[in-house]
């Protein structure tokens, strides 16, 4: 149940960011749910592999290269999805940062309701 709620919260965050961030477009709420699922799968499967492969540059940049990895995952989700469009790398980077921030706020509200 918690996974479904988190997916729905991520979909809401994607919709909100698409409304306010120029260069990001989502076709509808169904597309946002699919984007949330695709991002979750990419973060589960591909992100650990990319982190291991880029470990030297991640250490050299003190972890800032992880932002680039997150932006690349957003761009990959854009390629996999038909109803989700991101205009470029810098937009994907900003979308990634704002999505992470919004998810942490929404998830913290979910955890407060649980306690």
Task: Give structural notes.
The chain is mainly α. The protein has one domain. It has helices at 2-20, 29-53, 55-60, 65-80, 89-114; strands at residues 24-26, 84-86. The chain has a two-stranded antiparallel sheet. Helix 1 crosses helix 2 (29-53), helix 2 packs across helix 4 (65-80) and helix 4 (65-80) packs across helix 5. The relative contact order is 0.17.
Could you provide a short overview of the structure?
The chain is mainly alpha-helical and 115 residues long.
The tally of strands reads 2
Helix percent reads: over 70%
The major pleated sheet works out as: 2 strands, antiparallel
SS-based class: mainly alpha
Shape: globular
The largest sheet has its strands arranged as: 1-2
* First-to-last CA distance: 16 Å
Instruction: Detail the poorly predicted runs.
Output: none
The number of distinct helices, counting runs of at least 4 residues, comes to 5
Strand content: 5-15%
Multimeric state of these chains? single chain
Q: If you compute it from the alpha carbons, what radius of gyration comes out, rounded to the nearest whole angstrom?
A: 14 Å
Order of helices and strands: HEHHHEH
Structurally, the number of domains stands at 1
User: Which whole number gives the mean pLDDT?
Assistant: 93
Pfam families: Phage_holin_4_2
Keywords: Membrane, Transmembrane, Transmembrane helix
Protein name: Putative membrane protein
Transmembrane segments: 28-46, 53-77, 89-110
